[in-house]
Write a structure and sequence with these properties.
Lipocalin; 9-stranded antiparallel sheet; 1 helix
Length: 135
Amino acid sequence: MTRHSWIGRVIVLAVVLFAPAVSRAQGLAPADADDFMGTWVMSMEGPQGAFEQELELKDKDGKVVGELTNAVMPMQVITDVSKPGADLVLKYEGNYQGNPYSATLTLVPDGASKAKVTFDVNSGMFTMSGTAAKK
């Protein structure tokens, strides 16, 4: 293998590996998340029992942005929104009582205006799942 073909393969591999991260950083267009846009009420079960959150997905400057609210914490604005296949994935960093965490909220379509939802904190350290319904 020549040096030029080796370098070319490395460049192609880098593009394949890092292109999804670059496009995710640019944001998801509202047209690509049309079925998810609007307000969702999420009912989940966790180790401490039932927990409700509300997620509003809206267009901000041509990108999908989520606003997550619940009875425990202040509103969280989420800008890292992607759509792998039919699912919608929202990722954000938060802080609860001085403890930083990373969270992933995944909505999986489950019929018209309904979804299955998973809320994952710190890569599986704490997980809740349940259902979501569009308001």
